[in-house]
Amino acid sequence: MTKAKTITINNQEYAIDSLSEVAKAQLINLRVVEKEISRLKMQLGIAQTARSVFAKGVLTNLPALEETK
């Protein structure tokens, strides 16, 4: 006999099969949004790394101070 799939919400366990169709749809939406947040966090990390590299590139390519006078 297989155990019914459950989900824990606010420290309370619920059988997924016992949830309403609306609750099940909202769970699907929540999972989609969680994945999107994770993807966006990864994209943000990539962008922050690129920004750091570009900023260092600017600093290393600035003219020497005596050249600007």
Summarize the model shown:
The chain has one helix and two strands. The chain is mainly alpha-helical.
**Uncertain stretches:** none
Strand content: 5-15%
Distance between the termini: 83 Å
- What order do the helices and strands follow? EEH
Key features of this structure:
single chain; 69 residues; 1 helix; mainly alpha; 2 strands
Can you offer a commentary on this structure?
This protein is mainly alpha-helical and 69 residues long. The protein has a domain at 18-61. It has one helix and two strands, in the order E-E-H. Strands 1-2 form a two-stranded antiparallel ribbon. The radius of gyration is 25 Å and the shape is rod-shaped. The mean pLDDT is 93.
Describe how the helices and strands are arranged.
Blueprint: E1 6-9, E2 12-15, H1 21-60
Antiparallel strand pairs: 1-2
